């Protein structure tokens, strides 16, 4: 099968998991009713809790995670593939979390897990130090569906193009980039970076996002976006919560890669160094 429909859920996640479970129980069936075969949620689907101590206290191990359990039930109940952008999963040390993305198959089974590799330690209008509470992942992950191979990433990973190129070279023709982008970086860079990853990789990009004002004044950019393998925006939301549906034809992946086969043109090279031109 080369055609399928994807839905991106644009959420305004609360700090309490129960509120987000309630939102998912409305949005996932609605997306499936709109014909979505694959439903994608944003980063921090289970909670968006800026307070570090509260976030650790509310996180749960995978086996006891109430949001994951609810999502597995939703996948079974709707028959959709469900890409959970990320959940706060308690680390074994009890002091940190994994920012973990899941792909669930229609029977509710976990088809793939991905732990966010690149952690958001930056100074913007306020400082962000994700590494204080989040353990970094150390492995790129792809997973097969009936329509395409998916590459799983999360938010700040977007700024590291080598990860996406490696996923594309491994056969991932649809790149998932669930996010909770800040407003200043979203306004400046969000669409440009997403289109660049699609163009560089000859792949679809599906980016479900958080939007609006959250607990403790945290604000996210929204603008969930879908990009085709030639870099064209084929779906976009604004700042409101809602559902974006996109029809995807995976034949477009091969077509783009035939027109511009840059994935086949990588060459080895020495790392950057100072060279004395006079010695040449």
Write down how many β-strands occur, each being a DSSP E stretch of 2 or more residues.
Answer: 16
CATH architecture: 4-Layer Sandwich
Taking Cα atoms only, what radius of gyration do you get, to the nearest Å? Answer: 19 Å
Return the average pLDDT rounded to an integer. 96
Low-confidence parts lasting 5 or more residues at pLDDT below 50? none
- Identify the CATH homologous superfamily: Carbon-nitrogen hydrolase
Distance between the termini: 55 Å
Order of helices and strands: EHEHHEEEEEEEHEHEEEEEEH
Strand order of the largest sheet: 5-4-3-2-1-16
CATH class value: Alpha Beta
How many separate helices?
Answer: 6
Provide tags for this entry:
Nitrilase/N-carbamoyl-D-aminoacid amidohydrolase; 6-stranded mixed sheet; 6 helices; 26% helix
